[in-house]
Amino acid sequence: MPLFHILWSIFLVFLLVAWIWVLISVIADIFASDDISGWGKALWLLGVMILPWLGVLMYILLRGDEMRARQRATHEAVENERKAYIRHVAGSHSTADELTKLAELREKGVITEAEFAAQKSKLLG
To answer: Do both 28 and 82 map to the same domain?
Structure first.
């Protein structure tokens, strides 16, 4: 029997953590909603605090689509910023920059005229 009690306790802790996660997500979404007025946000918060289960259920049923759209937009914005940062750090170069570098290498004698022409056709081709 002690094993059953331990497993039951673990399950209840899991449910508690899941409930807290959902509650925080709903409250964060209430504050993040641009389409709800200040009084509307206050009423939703009051509903979630007074009757938590019913308030959260009603919020998810009535505003779940907008909540998901806001989360998706936030994730896309973060992803785009991450990609832009990686491009910036990686130093993406234009074709003109690469041709300039090749010309400098040719002038210094590091590469021959044939190698320059081959790299240039590769860049432009």
So the answer is: yes
Q: Which of 104, 100, 99 is nearest to 122 (CA)?
A: 99
Does one domain contain both 22 and 81?
Answer: yes
Examine the domain organization and report whether 74 and 98 are in the same domain: no
Domain holding 97, by residue range, is 93-125
pLDDT higher than threshold 80 for residue 70: yes
pTM for the structure as a whole: 0.62
Confidence of residue 92 (pLDDT cuts 50, 70, 90): low
Euclidean distance between CA atoms 53 and 48, whole angstroms: 7
* Same structural domain, 84 and 125: no
Mean pLDDT value across residues 48-55: 93
